[in-house]
Amino acid sequence: MERLQKVIAQAGVASRRKAEELITEGKVKVNGQVVTELGTKVSMTDKIEVEGIPLVEEEKKYFLFYKPRGVISAVKDDKNRKVVTDFFKHVSQRVYPVGRLDYDTTGLLLLSNDGEFTQLLTHPSHEINKTYVAKVKGVPLREALKKLERGIVLEDGKTAPAKAKLQSADRSKNTAIVEITIHEGKNRQVRRMLEAIGHPVLKLKREKFAFLELRGLNAGEYRELTPHEVKRLKVLAQTGQ
């Protein structure tokens, strides 16, 4: 027997948190009866429907996507802007972004239909490094970068220590390229951190997620993760190694 929200997440319908919302909103039936109580346990023989659609466990899929600028990290947008799943119309499974990248941020984003995998990689307690490269206004001094490394106080709390280094500087244009590695996921965190030290972001790209890189991909392209990569990500999230 498994908890209903876990079964829904494992079927790739939604993350476990979203599955819990669907249950409490009365959108889930078990054997023809609406179930709204979280923690309800079901077996393999139970007939489960989510929003009127019978639950069928999909084959698990895991993708590495190079998100272009001007794309929403969501499955739909009420303003009819392009979303990441628009690039996956030929994938039969319903995949969802694992975490998010801002509308104006490019780079590495994972998508999957495995709700448990998504929950594992996005949980705040699992410190998975994400490396960004930012083009910023001005040329940061070493002391400013050390502030990022110690943690910056933002309106929603102090950031965890980061890794930061100056990659290059163009003093004639008064811009610089800064590499920064964090393991948190606060809203627009990298942009806010760099703005807090007086160097607003002009362009931002996520180049690495854990050990994964964008090598071989152009913006708008994706590839499927190998079984070994999926296993490594799960182990990393669970053990930190």
TrEMBL record:
Give GO terms for biological process: enzyme-directed rRNA pseudouridine synthesis
**What Pfam families does the database record attribute to this sequence?**
PseudoU_synth_2, S4
The kind of enzyme this is, by top-level EC class, is isomerase
GO CC annotation: cytosol
- Name the Enzyme Commission number(s) assigned to this protein: 5.4.99.-
Instruction: State the UniProt keywords alphabetically.
Output: Isomerase, RNA-binding
**Keyword RNA-binding attributed:** yes
Recorded GO MF terms = RNA binding; rRNA pseudouridine synthase activity
UniProt entry tagged with the keyword RNA-binding: yes
Question: The organism sits in which domain of life?
Answer: Bacteria
List, for all copies, the residue spans of the domain called RNA-binding S4: 2-63
Q: What PANTHER family does UniProt report for this protein, alphabetically?
A: PSEUDOURIDINE SYNTHASE FAMILY PROTEIN-RELATED, RNA-BINDING S4 DOMAIN-CONTAINING PROTEIN
What family does the Swiss-Prot or TrEMBL record give for this protein? Answer: Belongs to the pseudouridine synthase RsuA family.
| Protein's UniProt name | Pseudouridine synthase
Species of the source: Siminovitchia acidinfaciens
